[in-house]
Amino acid sequence: MIKFLLEKDTWQEVFDSLSKNKLRSILTMVGVWWGILLLIGLLGSAKGVENNFNTRFQNYATNSLFIFSGTTTIPFKGYQEGRRIKLKLDDVEKIKKNVIGVEYVLPSLRGQITASRKTLSGGFGLNGEFPFRDALAKKNLLWGRYINQNDINDRKKVIVISEDVYKQLFEKGEYPIGKLIKVDNLNFIVIGVFEVVNVGGPPIEADMPFTTFQQVYNRGNDIDVLTITGDADFDINQLDADVKLLLKNIHDIHPDDNRALNGFNLGDRFEQLTGFIVGMQFLTWFVGIATLIAGVFAIGGILLISVKERTKEIGIRRALGATPYLVKRQIIVEAVAISLISGLLGIISGGLILILVNKFVGQGEDAFMRNPSVSIGMVFFALLIVILLGTLIGLIPAFKATSVKPIDALREE
Amino acid sequence: MLKIHQLHKSYPIGDSSLHVLKGIDLSVKEGEMVAIMGSSGSGKSTLLNIIGMLDEADEGEYILDGLPIKDLTEKKAAVYRNKFLGFIFQSFNLINYKTALENVALPLYYQGMKRAERQELAMFHLEKVGLTDWAKHLPKELSGGQNQRVAIARALAANPKLLLADEPTGALDTKTSYEIMAFIQQLNDEGKTILMVTHEEDIANMCKRIVRLRDGIIMEDTKVTQVRAEQYV
Prior knowledge:
Largest sheet of chain A: 6 strands, mixed, barrel
Structural class of chain A: alpha+beta
CATH architecture of chain B: 3-Layer(aba) Sandwich
Shape of chain A: elongated
Structural class of chain B: alpha/beta
Order of helices and strands of chain B: EEEHEEHEHHHEHEHEE
Number of helices of chain A: 14
Largest sheet of chain B: 6 strands, mixed
Oligomer: heterodimer
Number of domains of chain A: 2
CATH superfamily of chain B: P-loop containing nucleotide triphosphate hydrolases
CATH class of chain B: Alpha Beta
Strand order of the largest sheet of chain A: 3-4-9-6-8-7
Number of domains of chain B: 1
Strand content of chain A: 15-25%
Strand order of the largest sheet of chain B: 6-7-8-3-9-10
């Protein structure tokens, strides 16, 4: 059998019979080609989206949650509904002390500012942060450094800005570190510029030391956002519920009031997205394989017709000494060859499509996908399926071809 | 060379069956050239098909070159056909997408002969039928007579013991028919045993023996003086 596959004659026969009827061969190949193209295209795109999510999440501890205050919707303990909840700095210690599984609790302040420099200005979101922020949600700094403990202790008027802010306030290519910008009419020194990575919530555009923020905007002991991380093996949803319950107790919020404290946890989101990606991959395989099967069946159908068409030829071959085995083998090899060629074409064109997809939607910061690709293993797996299905489907016309007696086959016109 | 004893064959037609061959006795020696004649339905083609192992008898004995031909599997029949028999058909039965050379080489392919060797041998046979220059042409580019000569070359390629011809001139005009017959006679002169089905008297008279069939039995089996076909060409 191996020897048979390596012989030039075998392939000459296949080539002859396929090139004899080009239209038939091409139509046959379209089915499988399309199936493989879809499979490769979809799998590659799914991979691209997955890569994109992974890149966006890589800087975050996925067992973190964010809580920010909202407005009550249920009257409780003599308070009317519609009360604005204010989280306090001492909540941090209370959470650390009372909730099991908490690793870090980090308070932040949020505000809207107007920043300007020379003739340029813009409105931005501002955070008051501790240095530890950098450990929880890693900032990729393009220039300079992040806030440090000295900045906190001395309430320094320094600011770390995002790339977006830099673009608005600075000339292209200008070195920003050490330059002054005006934030709500006070001068701040730019100490760092970070890359924008956004995973939901309001865009973070500039960070200043927590203590500076407190003083400049006169925030007392208020805080706006709590970032909490859980111990590695601790269920983040449980932690989320525990922390909220505690805060509801402290701030006299009705236990069923879900609007008074807002927030989300990354574990949850990450799970949702991972689930979404897994679902997408499953769908991709399902659609791809189904299309492939349809394509291979089309090959089977067309080969069946072609065998019927070639009844006489097969009769002649048998009169000349072709054994039923040789006839069957020939037809199966034709089926496999046609599947394989169209499969390879599908892989090549699928790859080209992925290159195009990458070129048009895979570039830049906000790209929907990153490096859409399929692994060599998957390609081989797809080819294996094609060969297997091709062989199986080839059996039908092969047996059909030898089911006719040679004498009847010869009489066929 | 060939011995047939009390051969019977019937075909089912609906509920009843049609008895086509009703006890045929025939023996052919090496080097003979036999014409099997009869009107349509006389069973001459069925007889040739059974001899050609394309069909099987219901009853009776068939011995080819000392080998009893009975209860053959399809595989064995194919191997025997390839080894012992050469077929010449009325409608040539060439494979239309293969060149003359490839058609002639086909029986050799099924013998498992190597490509180069096969091509060389096929070329030799094409040369014998005078078609060297047409080796690379497809059947549709050749005339009827040329196609039949390709078919003859193909029948000869595997060097069979017995040549079976089913109305070899049936699709050709008179002049071409005689050319083909002259060629077949020449093969016979060289010692090939030839069995031919025909319904044309002039063609039958170019053989050395005529077997007449009617309603499934042999009516007449006579040796004749061979009319040479060359004189008409």
